């Protein structure tokens, strides 16, 4: 397939009749890809419906990304985890000894569950599995003090002792941070390998650590080297994070450089949710800049400026959608011009 990969995420509607209408709007907006969230709820109760939704999407010529939305509380997404409720022994443990509402990536039971999720995602027809924002429990996302870090579960305690030769400390020191970094890396490696074994493409979206942008290239490099990874990216939602456009650009450049260096396709997720009045143009600017910096896989979170999820809705979602559509269509027109005149023109 030639041309840029442009798309949006989609969630909250599971009635294929309504999904079909929305898919048409996406295609009209210039999309040739869609990400369907695939939560634990979808996995339990909408399996065949999801297969129908994926088939409809392909009928519109869209490449289908599937992501583990909030699965285990380990990935990004506004979905609850049933796995953590049902598997007390696999839950992350906070610094105060209480259980977090999330599974531990070091738990074998959770790893086995993820393999089932992969299998189901492939069965419903995914083209690409996106590992979105993998993280250890972040207390600040739940309004808890940062001191309540995780994870101190038995799996982590045992692994830490084996690898570092002393008990897991009560306060996170550099070894703990290193351990968590490598735990997540091993987890993603396992997932991408399992997905590749089922014949689908794999994508990774890493959370930008705004406080330490200078360390991103080194921290992210190992992921970009994974042979089982096809698409390497991030979601620098700079407006949401209260950051500058220059910082956004910086993250885009890191993604592009690492992807180029290790032969991956770079992907940037653009914020099309929680956009304040007056900032709508920044959505278009973000897309244009990612494209200008050489990224040809640009997706936005989410459809219609996230009009229908009040928690992350933009102030004026219709304006956000209009700006996103304008940016996507401009890329399509540019591609069309290149196809028409490219071979005979300046090239
Ligand atoms: Zn743990």
Q: What can be said about the biggest beta sheet?
A: 8 strands, parallel, barrel
CATH superfamily: Glycosidases
User: What are the segments in which pLDDT stays under 50 over at least 5 consecutive residues?
Assistant: none
State the distance separating the first and last CA atoms.
Answer: 20 Å
How many DSSP helices?
12
Tally of distinct domains? 1
> How are helices and strands ordered from N to C?
EHEHHEHEEHEHHEHEHHEHEH
CATH topology category name: TIM Barrel
Q: Percent of residues in beta strands?
A: 5-15%
Rg of Cα set: 20 Å
Strand order of the largest sheet: 1-2-3-6-7-8-9-10
Question: What key attributes describe this structure?
Answer:
alpha/beta; two-stranded antiparallel ribbon; 347 residues; TIM Barrel; binds zinc ion; 8-stranded parallel barrel
């Amino acid at each position: 397939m030639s041309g840029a990969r442009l798309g949006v995420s989609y969630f909250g509607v599971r009635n294929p009749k309504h999904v079909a209408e929305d898919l048409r709007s996406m295609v009209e907006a210039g999309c040739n890809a869609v990400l369907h969230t695939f939560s634990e709820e979808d996995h339990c109760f909408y399996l065949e419906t999801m297969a129908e939704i994926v088939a409809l999407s392909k009928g519109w010529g869209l490449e289908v990304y599937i992501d583990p939305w909030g699965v285990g509380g380990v990935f990004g997404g506004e979905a609850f985890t049933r796995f953590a409720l049902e598997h007390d022994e696999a839950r992350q443990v906070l610094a105060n000894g209480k259980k977090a509402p999330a599974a531990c990536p070091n738990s074998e039971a959770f790893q086995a569950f993820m393999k089932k999720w992969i299998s189901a995602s492939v069965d419903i027809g995914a083209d690409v599995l996106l590992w979105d924002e993998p993280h250890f429990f972040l207390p600040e996302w739940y309004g808890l003090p940062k001191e309540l870090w995780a994870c101190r579960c038995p799996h982590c305690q045992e692994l830490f002792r084996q690898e570092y030769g002393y008990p897991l400390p009560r306060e996170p020191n550099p070894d703990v941070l290193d351990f968590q970094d490598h735990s997540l890396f091993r987890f993603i490696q396992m997932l991408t390998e399992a997905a590749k074994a089922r014949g689908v493409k794999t994508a990774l979206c890493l959370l930008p650590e705004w406080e330490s942008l200078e360390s991103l290239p080194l921290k992210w490099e190992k992921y970009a080297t994974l042979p089982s990874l096809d698409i390497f990216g991030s979601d620098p939602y700079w407006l949401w994070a209260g950051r500058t456009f220059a910082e956004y650009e910086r993250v885009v450049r890191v993604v592009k450089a690492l992807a180029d260096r290790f032969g991956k396709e770079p992907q940037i997720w653009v914020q099309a949710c929680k956009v304040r009045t007056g900032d709508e143009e920044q959505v278009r600017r973000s897309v244009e800049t990612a494209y200008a910096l050489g990224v040809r896989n640009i997706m936005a979170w989410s459809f219609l400026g996230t009009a229908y999820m009040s928690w992350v809705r933009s102030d004026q979602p219709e304006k956000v959608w209009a700006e996103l559509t304008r940016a996507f269509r401009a890329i399509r027109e540019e591609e069309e011009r290149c196809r028409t005149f490219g071979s005979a023109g300046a090239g």
